[in-house]
Design goal:
Layout: E1 8-10, E2 13-17, H1 23-30, H2 33-36, H3 49-59, E3 67-72, E4 75-84, E5 93-99, H4 102-105, H5 109-122, H6 129-142, H7 146-159, H8 164-175
Antiparallel strand pairs: 1-2, 2-3, 3-4, 4-5
Helix pairs in contact: 5-6, 6-7, 6-8, 7-8
């Protein structure tokens, strides 16, 4: 096994090579509009069984592959990888990742907030910040912290007017209990 295929333990997750038996979890987490709308144009939505078969067949076990699964509790919940540049960009790479809403959809709200906050603080200029803030607000509301949720969602509306995240935040604000 090459160094590129060794698992990397990262606290709550494991970065490891993709496997053919990842198909069910890949389908569950990749077929998510929130994942799709934050990725490159070539990532399909809806994400079908044929898409999963094509992806896994292409990269599973590929030596020196620069694409890995993000595994939480034995389940592939996202992916991470790099595409080497070509020509004059030969010493560069396009790096990207996607991570399903594993903590949020399993109602592990404390870990969900921590994960979304890492996006907002670690990459404050990322185009993913508005969506991460919306999820923080939704998660705060789910925990019954309606005052915190209101502050977070109002921040989204003010900082990102006209965005889909602002629309979602506005809709949720209407349903939050009064202060």
């Amino acid at each position: 096994m090459s160094a590129a295929n060794l698992p990397l333990h990262c606290g709550p997750c494991l970065v490891r090579p993709w496997r053919l038996d990842d198909k069910p979890s890949l389908l569950r987490h990749a077929n998510n509009r929130n994942v799709w709308r934050n990725l490159a144009h070539r990532f399909p939505h809806p994400y079908t069984e044929a898409d999963a078969d094509t992806w896994l067949t292409r990269i599973a076990g590929q030596p020196g592959c620069l694409r890995w699964a993000i595994d939480v509790n034995g389940e592939a919940v996202g992916g991470i990888g790099a595409e080497p540049g070509e020509g004059i960009f030969g010493k560069t790479a396009n790096f990207g990742y996607w991570l399903g809403e594993a903590y949020y959809v399993t109602r592990d709200y404390p870990n969900a907030i921590t994960a979304f906050q890492k996006v907002t603080t670690g990459w404050p200029d990322s185009r993913k910040v508005p969506d991460a803030l919306v999820k923080i607000g939704f998660t705060q509301a789910a925990l019954g912290k309606n005052g915190d949720a209101r502050i977070t969602l109002e921040e989204v509306v003010q900082r990102f007017p006209g965005s889909e995240a602002a629309t979602l935040a506005s809709e949720r604000l209407k349903r939050l209990p009064a202060k």
